[in-house]
Design a protein that fits this description.
By secondary structure, the protein is mainly β. Strands 1-58-57-56 form a 4-stranded antiparallel beta sheet. Strands 2-3-4-5 form a 4-stranded antiparallel beta sheet, with no helix packed on it. A 4-stranded antiparallel beta sheet has the order 6-7-8-9, with no helix packed on it.
């Protein structure tokens, strides 16, 4: 990273330090890490019900798309990708062009389909106009590869936002798409096209994972997808998770059935209906296979036909303990199976969440080369007599953990899809390189540094807290802290101090210095370990005092001498004691006023909002007139005493309750501010000016410029993805979005709030004195005439602005007496409204 080289060295050193646990210890964390984000997402959107209202979710997406098509702000500018490209997200599936192996399609868990035409050097999104971007399977037409089929929905069925709406078809190599139906089936796990009759298509489906219904199983179309018939259905809590067709005799098909239900209170991932079914008449009749295969309750099953001989069939079974139960091989088209020796595979290879994997690979060049996809990759080259790990251990981060698909370009050239992107080996598993360069990281939280223009810090699922350079997105981002990453803070006064956190409130302070040394301090002392903590525990810094931090468990905590202090509780338990969802009732958000030094708000996961006007001395509930939804965010107004905003998650059918409220009297009364916005969960709100606000939602980013009466979708090119966090970067006058599918995006606010779209001129330095200041500060403006200025808080909100002509070189004085102590930025503009300079200053009293 060219703009902050010292930090890079520190980050590299830190990775080796923070990841120094023994692999066996780290493996114990994997089950929690897989269940955690899914449970968290589901609970947010379902509470207080035990399952999400799926009809409301679908209606929200459709209304959001219709709303965007009439949104004037959609044409006011585009979002810019700012990375990371090297810390990728989950890839579910890979499809290789049958005539040109430089053309590869990659299906992501939530960000759509991407295509490369140069073997992985560059990638282009193909499906951004679709409303459902989790991809389950991609297949080229076996006769005409310009025809592509895409099945939507995440077949790994971890949680909420990864359902689909059926199958799409492209006849122009992915440039445009036609919808083929199967909306009711929600998760398309596999597609097969008859090579002898390409109008015949088979679709394996898992149905709605949140409820028991009959829209599951295997479907067949005989007219190119215009109509479908269900040809295999086992029961209302299972579906077809894998499919294999004999390419020489397409009437022979194998289908694997899996019991799977996932709600807020129930997770079924194994059952008595796990079985492989076979048809020899194209799906008219089916027979369960049994000879040599496991019986009784099982979990997920994977299938693979060897390309060298379609009578050779492999299958993998996951047991009820969600570990590998066995790999089995048939040489007579499934009539009989024999177990493949797997004694050389680590017994914990699937990490206890085999429902998430159940994939095997078989080299088309050698049926004895079999690979097991789990946390790591295991391969045998002699049919099972010997197994070896053929990727570096996951905790080394050379190849990301959790493998989901494997495809073969040649005897020694292989593609591997993981939770952290796409990898390739060209020397038979000896070395691997990351080739995806696909911005599909799943970010929870994002912020910027007040010291280094362009420095971005963000916390991601499975990728920890990373630091990147928005001014050069192609530069690699570096992992600053491990685990699942959440809130990070760059101290606004000490430019060598950063805060980061991982799941369940495991916070840390990271100190660096100009000698490229570093140290880190655990910030858990004082927290009662028995208290309930949110997966995405809040962490905020007092905007008036950078040494004061706040967090929450089931109560609010304060640290007064950060980072050296200890946490002290400053509230009673603020969540309900109802035993339903008991462990998930906790503090979800905390807010501290930048105008009133003792004003604090707290929101909870069970729909409660609290206020303290004496720095935690006493608390009052202020949610009597608010909906009983998960509280996602609270923001105090930086311009007006008593004004506060609260946002909510949740889906309910036939309920037009707003997901956003404003109070001008500290929460005594509330007003809904959703205006004409379609009903949808709101995850975050940013206050730009008194009446201009931005919100992050499950369907993108929206803006109001008239205090919530009317809303517009922001930007012309953001796909329909979940956005969890926003940050206004005053150094760049930009809005930065943390998406949970398409990495970090940035929107230049000059597109909206400056009358000209010409490139910004080179910045002209300002001279500020005294700095730090107390009540008054003098500003010298060398170089160019200044028409106006704005003063921003570190959070990016405008706290003061003035329109007045100042001649080049003129000095003027600013009265700071109405502003609280803290760190600020002053931005000057010329007569055209173009930015001239940005400087940081401190008010200290």
């Amino acid at each position: 990273m060219k703009i902050f080289n010292a930090i890079i060295v520190l980050s590299i050193s830190l990775v080796s330090c923070t990841e120094s646990k023994k692999p066996s210890e780290k493996s114990l964390e994997r089950i929690e890490k897989k269940n955690g984000p899914f449970d968290h997402f589901y609970f947010q959107r379902a509470f207080p019900d035990d399952q999400i209202n799926f009809e409301a979710m679908e209606r929200s997406l459709k209304e959001a798309k219709a709303f965007a098509q009439s949104s004037s702000k959609s044409s006011d500018g585009e979002w810019t990708e700012i990375g990371p490209y090297n810390l990728g997200g989950r890839i579910n599936c890979i499809a290789i062009h049958p005539d040109n192996d430089n053309i590869i399609l990659s299906g992501t868990a939530g960000g759509g389909v991407f295509r490369t035409e140069d073997g992985g050097n560059t990638w282009t999104p193909l499906t951004d106009d679709l409303t459902h971007l989790p991809i389950g399977h991609i297949v080229f037409d076996p006769v005409d590869p310009s025809i592509i089929y895409v099945g939507t929905g995440d077949p790994n069925i971890g949680g909420t936002v990864w359902v689909g709406n059926g199958i799409y078809k492209s006849t122009d190599s992915g440039e445009t798409w036609t919808y083929l139906g199967l909306e009711e089936c929600k998760i398309i796990s596999k597609i097969a096209v008859n090579p002898l009759n390409t109008d015949q298509i088979f679709a394996a489906t898992m149905g709605v994972p949140f409820e028991r219904n009959n829209d599951r199983g295997l479907y067949r179309s005989n007219d190119g997808g215009l109509s479908w018939e269900q040809i295999l259905f086992v029961n209302d809590e299972s579906g077809i998770i894998d499919l294999a067709m004999n390419p020489e005799n397409p009437n022979v098909i194998y289908a694997a059935n899996w019991n799977r239900i996932r709600t807020n209170l129930e997770s079924v991932a194994s059952g008595p209906d796990a079985a492989i079914y076979k048809t020899i008449d194209g799906g008219d009749t089916w027979t369960p296979l049994s000879n040599g295969l496991p019986t009784g309750e099982m979990s997920r099953i994977g299938l693979k036909i060897w390309e060298g001989d379609p009578n050779v069939v492999f299958t993998q079974y996951v047991g009820t303990d969600f570990q590998l139960h066995g790999i089995y091989k048939s040489v007579d088209a499934g009539e009989n199976f024999t177990e493949v020796n797997t004694t050389g595979i680590n017994e914990g290879a699937l990490g206890g969440f085999g429902w998430y994997f159940a994939k095997i690979g078989v080299s088309p060049y050698d049926q004895n080369e079999i690979s097991l996809l789990g946390i790591d990759l295991y391969t045998t080259f002699d049919g099972g007599d010997n197994w070896s790990m053929t990727t570096p251990e996951w905790w080394q981060y050379e190849v990301h953990a959790d493998k989901h698909a494997i495809e073969y370009l040649g005897p020694d050239e292989i593609l591997l899809a993981t939770d952290g992107g796409l990898y390739r080996t060209t020397d038979g598993y000896q070395t691997w390189s990351d080739i995806d360069q696909i911005p599909n990281t799943q970010f929870y939280r994002i912020t910027s540094s007040p010291h280094f223009p362009g420095m971005i810090l963000a916390g991601a699922q499975d990728n920890g807290t990373a630091i990147g350079n928005a001014t050069d997105p192609q530069e690699d981002w570096l992992r600053l802290w491990g685990g699942d990453g959440f809130t990070s803070i760059a101290d606004p006064v000490i430019n060598q101090l950063y805060y980061a956190g991982s799941q369940f409130g495991n916070f840390v302070a990271i100190f660096t210095d100009i000698e490229t040394n570093f140290d880190y301090i655990s910030l858990t002392d004082g927290i009662n370990a028995s208290e309930r903590v949110n997966w995405d525990a809040p962490l905020i810094m007092d905007p008036l005092n950078h040494t004061q931090l706040y967090t929450g468990t089931e109560r609010v905590y304060k640290m007064s001498d950060a980072p050296w202090g200890i946490w002290e509780p400053i509230s009673p338990v603020l969540v309900n004691s109802d035993p339903t969802f008991f462990t998930r009732r906790n503090i979800s958000t905390v807010a501290k006023s930048g105008l009133e030094p003792e004003l604090i708000y707290a929101g909870t996961s069970d729909g409660q909002v609290w206020v303290s006007q004496n720095d935690g001395g006493s608390w009052a509930a202020i949610n009597a007139s608010l909906p009983e939804y998960y509280v996602t965010d609270i923001k105090t107004c930086p311009f007006q005493d008593g004004r506060v905003f609260v946002t909510f998650s949740g889906y309910r059918d036939n309920d037009n309750t707003p997901h956003m409220y404003r109070s001008d009297d500290y929460g005594v009364t509330w007003t809904g501010i959703s205006g004409d916005l379609p009903e949808m969960p709101v995850n975050h709100i940013e206050i730009y000016t008194l009446n201009t606000w931005f919100i992050a939602t499950d369907n993108g980013v929206y803006i109001t410029t008239n205090g919530g009466e009317n809303w517009e979708r922001l930007g012309s090119n953001m796909p329909y993805v979940v956005v969890l966090d926003l940050h206004i970067d005053p150094l760049q006058n930009a809005l930065i979005a943390a998406t949970f599918a398409r990495s970090a995006l940035m929107f230049d606010l000059d597109n909206i709030f400056v009358s000209t779209a010409t490139p910004l001129p080179a910045q002209t330095a300002l001279n500020l004195y005294p700095n730090p200041a107390s009540d008054f500060m003098t500003v010298e403006t060398p170089g160019k005439q200044v028409q106006s200025y704005r003063i921003f808080s570190p959070r990016g909100t405008v706290v003061s602005e003035k329109q007045k002509n100042y001649t080049a070189g003129e000095s003027f004085q600013i009265n700071l007496t109405s502003m609280a102590a803290g760190v600020y930025f002053i931005v000057t503009y010329d007569v055209k409204g173009e930015r001239l300079a940005t400087e940081r200053f401190i008010i200290s009293r």
